[in-house]
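FORM 7B: Structural annotation worksheet

SECTION A. Query
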Amino acid sequence: MISNSMHSLYKYMPLRPEFFDNFLLRATGRFSLNDPFEVLPSVEYFADFAKKDIGESRAKQAIEAYISGNPAQLYKHYSGMLTKHGVISFTEIPDNLLMWAHYADEHRGIVIEIDREHAFFNDEYSFSGNLHRVLYRKSRLSKFTTYFAPYLYKSDEWQYEKEHRFIVSLAESTKKMIKKEHKEKFPVFEGYLVTKFSDDLYEISGGDFPGSLATASNSTVMHMFSIPPDSIKSIILGALVSEDDEKEIVNAIQTNKDLDKLKIYKSQLHTHRFELDIVELKRTD
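SECTION B. Predicted structure
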């Protein structure tokens, strides 16, 4: 059984054998997150932000009234800062049944264990480029403190996830991609290339990425960040991963010299209780 370590965090994800070659994880902007309250403080927060940060001359109550009466203008005037960053989500727990079902393709995916103390996740000079624990509460943020606070508060109905977020600038992503079904609708920019990356994905490359597409407001663009292979401590295969897929994943790991210390686990359905047993698989290399 894998042990819950204070030095580890876990990432639930679909089965992607190519991950063990490119080590790409998606950073999700607020418009692609599954909770409509994500990164969306209260009107009181935005009024407080307008007064404290941009020196708005109107009274706070007047600003709140304006935002409440013009919701379409809210992001235009006050929330540009909330579209420039994305989050890569991790959790403290590797065996949560709901998260296996929701985020790891109904137990057909994987969980990767990362070293939370690795230098990649700890930029001492920046708030972004770091891991931060999500805080759960009943009410939305009402007072402005920092630009990044809205990324770190969620409804307490989500507290079972015990989430930690790695906050990154979307403009600095390793690769920017779109799904195959979005390729034909993607606007053409001079000097930019849209090339096939895999059966389902196309990569956008070339030049300086247009500002509007380097933000969370364009939900069709997937911002991918490559994490160091030595930051990965283990992988857990889902209980419903097929035998063929298991062999493919194990082979991808064992043939990659950067992963020679990576431990491989498999989750199994407990025979009596609604829980998972996680057992280590022996490597054959």
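SECTION C. Observations
DSSP finds six helices and 15 strands in the chain. The longest strand covers residues 85-91.

SECTION D. Sign-off
Analyst initials: ____
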